[in-house]
Every structure is written in structure tokens, then in C-alpha cells.
Design brief:
The complex is a heterodimer of chains A (113) and B (112).
Chain A lengths: L2 E3 L4 E5 L4 E3 L2 E3 L6 E7 L6 E7 L7 E2 L2 E6 L4 E6 L8 E8 L5 E3 L3 E6 L1
Parallel strand pairs in A: 2-12
Antiparallel strand pairs in A: 1-4, 3-9, 5-6, 5-10, 7-8, 8-9, 10-11, 10-12
Chain B lengths: L4 E3 L2 E4 L5 E6 L6 E8 L3 E9 L2 E5 L6 E5 L5 E5 L8 E8 L7 E2 L3 E5 L1
Parallel strand pairs in B: 2-11
Antiparallel strand pairs in B: 1-3, 3-8, 4-5, 4-9, 5-6, 7-8, 9-10, 9-11
The chains are: A mainly beta (113), B mainly beta (112).
């Protein structure tokens, strides 16, 4: 069975600063994919970033980057130059050979002006 | 806009009733996934269809069923509804396995 754990239910950051959201996961499979999704107050689920487990290089999308530590089964999300629009619930998700996504509990991020 | 559409946006019904949620995937996507988001259970995978065939099942109750039609749209049927079925139901689609899943706006179901 796959599990995803986000140990930070809530976090806050000042506008323009950097924040890191933590995620750990467990799977017995070697081939898997990791994602961060963002859910703003509108409730829409928006893909932020994706990482293939076989790639050693950490994924980057503009202000969003990940720190993927495969041996430690850790997948953290770093948001640089935080903006008010980044305020949302962030979910870490794991996809294995079965294609289904297993989600963590979520981290509510608030960006303060 | 993800390109995935879901109807209706909101649904209010009573216990014991049956409802149908509808999803149209992004153009060209063959896989459709259903997820349930509730306060106590979080985001949970329910079921996946690929090109009309059931591909995977998660924590889907026996009172729930789904299907994917030849035009690739999908329906999730919830019957004998209970208060605990109140949740946000998401549909997602992807072109193939291990691709990003694009989520629809969700259907908020309230069971009174």
C-alpha cells in the first residue's frame, strides 16, 4: 500500500519570502511519480509540479521547485518569492503503477501581505 | 480551465436518494478518474476507467457505481445516499497512465 504524509497542517509566509512544504511517502515500487497540487479557495485542483522517481534532477517550474530525496522518501516543495495568489491548500500526491493518486492530508499555506 | 467539465456544480438531496454526477474529460484523454474529498477522509481515489473499461478500483462503496461511455464521458452513480456521502466529488482525466491528471471543478454533494 502507498502512503503520503504531510506533517504541516498549516504554514504562513510573508509576501516575497520563501517557504518549504514537507512531504514524505512510502511505496514498495521503484517506478512512481510524485506531484504537488494546489487547491485555492475556489476548490479547483491545479497541478503545480511533477517529478519522475527515475530522474535524479529536481523538477522546477518558475518559482516552484522540489527537493526529491529518493532514499529518504522525501519530496518537499519550495515556493520562492511568495505571492498572495499562492494562498491555498497544497497536496502532495504519489502515483504508482496503478495510476491512481494517493494524496497527503494537505498543508494550508497563507501568504501574508 | 483544465478542460475537464463536471455537472452539476452543486447537488442537494435527501438521505436514501440516488444521484448521477457527470464528467467530460479533456479532448483526447482516454482515462477518467473519480475522487472524493471529504472533511474526515481527505482526498480519496474511487475508480478509474480507460477507454470504456474499468481499470482500477479504490475505496468505492458498493452503493456507488460508475461507467465510461463510448464518447468517453463518465458518470458516477451514488445510491441510498447517507449523510456521510456529503463531499466534493472530482473527476480527473489524463491522456495515458503516468501523465498528469487534470481535474474538473468538482461537484459538491450535500445530503440532508
Amino acid at each position: 500500500a502507498q502512503t503520503v504524509t504531510q506533517s504541516q497542517p498549516e504554514m504562513s509566509v510573508q509576501e516575497a519570502e520563501t517557504v518549504t512544504l514537507s512531504c514524505t511517502y512510502d511505496t514498495s515500487e521503484n517506478n512512481y511519480y510524485l506531484f504537488w497540487y494546489k487547491q485555492p479557495p475556489s476548490r479547483q485542483m491545479i497541478l503545480v509540479i511533477r517529478q519522475e522517481a527515475y530522474k535524479q534532477q529536481n523538477a522546477t517550474e518558475n518559482r516552484f521547485s522540489v527537493n526529491f530525496q529518493k532514499a529518504a522518501k522525501s519530496f518537499s516543495l519550495k515556493i520562492s518569492d511568495s505571492q498572495l495568489g499562492d494562498t491555498a491548500m497544497y497536496f502532495c500526491a504519489l502515483e504508482t503503477s496503478g495510476s491512481r493518486l494517493t494524496f497527503g492530508e494537505g498543508t494550508q499555506l497563507t501568504v501574508n501581505p | 480551465d483544465s478542460g475537464v467539465t463536471q455537472t452539476p456544480k452543486h447537488l442537494i438531496t435527501a438521505t436514501g436518494q440516488r444521484v448521477t454526477l457527470r464528467c467530460s474529460p479533456r479532448s483526447g484523454d482516454l482515462s477518467v478518474y473519480w475522487y472524493q474529498q471529504s472533511l474526515d477522509q481527505g482526498l480519496q481515489f474511487l475508480i478509474q476507467y480507460y477507454n470504456g473499461e474499468e481499470r482500477a478500483k479504490g475505496n468505492i462503496l458498493e452503493r456507488f457505481s460508475a461507467q465510461q461511455f463510448p464518447d468517453l464521458h463518465s458518470e458516477l452513480n451514488l445510491s441510498s445516499l447517507e449523510l456521510g456521502d456529503s463531499a466534493l466529488y472530482f473527476c480527473a482525466s489524463s491522456a495515458r497512465t503516468h501523465n498528469e491528471q487534470f481535474f474538473g471543478p468538482g461537484t459538491r454533494l450535500t445530503v440532508l
